[in-house]
Design brief:
- It is a single chain.
- The chain has helices at 2-33, 41-48, 52-80, 82-101, 106-135, 139-170, 173-190, 199-202.
- The protein has 207 residues and is an all-alpha fold.
- The chain has a single domain, classed as Up-down Bundle (Growth Hormone, Chain: A).
- Helix 1 packs antiparallel against helix 7.
- The longest helix has 32 residues, at 2-33.
Length: 207
């Protein structure tokens, strides 16, 4: 009986860890988006027939959009539910990356990258940490996976210029956005089993 309980406990922990890995991958992609464009500025400007300043403005607008909407995104997590906001953020982010990959001018790039990817990031990042809290009851284990997700954010920011530079150099800057679309698709598929529910039921908002 003890062996059965231990096996069940191990299996549950493994499933929770797998779900946490999906959340960490989502955090990685969101952080990657903030840094991968920096190494492709000249290539994008040349391809779209615009200025370097225009591309730099596009990158700045992405950061501002994400930062400005992060608190509203957290409030929507309370209202709409953590899994719904997480998935909605991924869909909006993926749609933005797809639009950006086919952009033929600066306005469409701004819509896809600055606006939609910024909005998507603001929606998907807040639920990530709440979902990690939901997955693990033990505070030590929870802290461990908070560290994993935070590390994924740092790795994504650091890997953005490296991966973005390699993809831009050997394929195209557009391929970097296509790569994001593919990864987001994988996250959406793998994240189907993440527990649904409304954040307000677990963490009531104080008046």
């Amino acid at each position: 009986m003890e062996a059965t309980n231990s096996f069940t406990s191990f299996g549950g922990a493994a499933v929770a860890a797998a779900k946490a890995a999906v959340l960490a991958l989502a955090q990685f992609v969101a952080s990657y988006a903030g840094s991968n464009m920096n190494v492709a500025i000249s290539a994008i400007a040349s391809d779209l027939g615009t200025s370097v300043t225009g591309i730099q403005t596009t990158i700045t607008l992405f950061t501002l959009t994400m930062a400005a909407l992060m608190i509203p995104g957290s409030k929507l997590t309370d209202i709409w539910g953590r899994k719904f906001c997480f998935q909605l953020g991924l869909v909006i982010y993926g749609a933005g990356a797809l639009i950006a990959s086919f952009a033929q001018g600066l306005p469409l790039l701004m819509i896809g990258y600055s606006l939609l990817e910024g909005v998507g990031s603001a929606l998907l990042i807040p639920p990530i940490y709440i979902l990690v809290t939901m997955l693990f009851d033990d505070t030590t284990t929870r802290a461990k996976y908070f560290g994993v997700v935070s590390a994924a954010a740092g790795i994504g920011s650091a890997a953005g210029p490296l991966i973005g530079g390699l993809v831009t150099s050997y394929i195209s800057w557009r391929a970097s956005f296509i790569l994001q679309v593919l990864i987001v698709g994988v996250i959406i598929w793998l994240g189907r089993g993440i527990a649904p529910g409304r954040c307000a039921q677990l963490l009531p908002v104080s008046s």
